[in-house]
Amino acid sequence: MTLLDELSGFEFEEAVASLFRAHGYEDVAVADRIADEGRDVTMRDGDVAYVVECKHTDVVSRPVVQKTHSAVATYDHDGPTRGMVVTSGRFTGPAESYAEGLRDAGDPHPVELVDGDDLRELGEAVGMDLYNGRIEIVCEETLPVGEPGLAVAEAFEDVENAPPRAALPAPETSVVYRPVVDVEAVTRATFETSVGVIHRIDRRDHIVVPAEEPAATSPAPDLLELTGVEPVALDAARDRHGGRVERFDGTEADYREAAAELLCAALETTVTYTGDNNVTYQRECRPSPDDVDVRRARPLYVPRVEAAVAPGEYEHGLVYDAAGPRRVVRRDAVRRCVHCADGEGPYTYCDNCGSVSCETHTRIERLTGEPVCTGCAVTAEFFLDTKYFFDEDNAAAFRREYEAMPFYRKPLENPRLVAAVAAAVVAVVLAAVALL
Ligand SMILES: [Zn+2]
Ligand SMILES: [Zn+2]
Fold it and tell me: Is CB count within 10 Å lower at the N or C end of the chain?
């Protein structure tokens, strides 16, 4: 047999519930049952209600089918009601004959039998691997990777003096496909005290739950804008961009649970109300996971792309989550100063060395008038001011220009000094006028 055997009875019921959810049954719920070894799964298909008995045992015999039949007959539902017995093992001959007998007699409450082989087929049909012990999520869709070269080129558009798109080398790219579950849920809760209803929740939420771990600790709100993009086949994306695929570490039931917990935490609020005695009270209103109905839990991969180019001596990279042309940037080493890392924009590209610099670390080359960074520039003093050059040759060329300047032009090489002198002259003149 398979690793399906390693599931506990409880996990088996959760797995069966996930399976039927994936097959489009509605209101699938694992219900507690009192004083019984198992728990029922109940669900709906249109107006037909199903009561499902789960048996994680090797052999299921006639009494189980019989008991399920009476449970169906007494189930409270306005409409057709059917039974189902699902086992990871097999049914005995008498169990099968009993179910056949109900069907042949046109019983209003027939009981379908689903054995281990059927179960595996049902699982495969919806991409659930029932051979892996945990009914793990097999996901074949990813958001599109997009064009890493374009992403880097667009980042460079925010950098002054940067090389044009066509002049940038093709980026070094790596992709990791990270699992998420895209969840839609409806939460309904009413909070009452002795003075009546103080708070009501009735809302639909859409959240993205990171799925590298079974119990996500926080949703990823910034990925919401990506999940609107149409996914593509994971295989096709990997054929084109390569990349590693990270595993879903939990079952669908784990992520549904995690999503419900996350929503409960997010929707918790403190309500202030006045009691009958005119005293003001405060109460924490937090919905319980039972108030959350997870309508959809779509597993999906989100490509995390690392792309870097080195047009000069420096490498400039970008790390982002991608959905075709949409991106959520995680690390930006394009719009960043290589000299101080925390300097603010605007950023300027230095053609001389290939670095990107903040305003503090950018100068104007005195000879050519182009930007040059303080990291690579050659400096020289002219009229008590520091000038910056691409190299010694440019510095020497400018020295010759400077020597040839008329004497009244040279002070213009130090505008701050000129301004200070002018201010001093004005002050002296004003003082002189005042003395008159
Ligand atoms: Zn800087
Ligand atoms: Zn430079």
Answer: C
Ligand nearest to the CA of 374: 2
Distance CA 404, CA 174 (A): 55
pLDDT tens figures, 78-133: 899 999 999 888 898 899 999 999 999 999 999 999 988 888 888 878 877 665 44
Whole-number Å distance, alpha carbon 365 to ligand 1 midpoint, is 17
Quick: pLDDT tens for 248-296: 877 778 888 899 999 999 999 999 999 888 999 999 999 999 999 998 8
For residue 316, the CA-to-ligand 1 centroid distance in Å is: 15
Closest CA to 299 of 239, 246, 242: 246
Angle between helical axes of 9-22 and 252-267 (0-180°, round to 10): 80
Average confidence (pLDDT) over 318-326: 96
Q: Cα(384) to centroid of ligand 1, in Å?
A: 24
Ligand nearest to the backbone CA of 390? 2
H or E element in which residue 257 lies: helix 252-267
Bridge partner list, 177: 245, 303
- Write the DSSP string, 6-53: GS-HHHHHHHHHHHHHHTT-EEEEEE--TTSSS-EEEEEETTEEEEEE
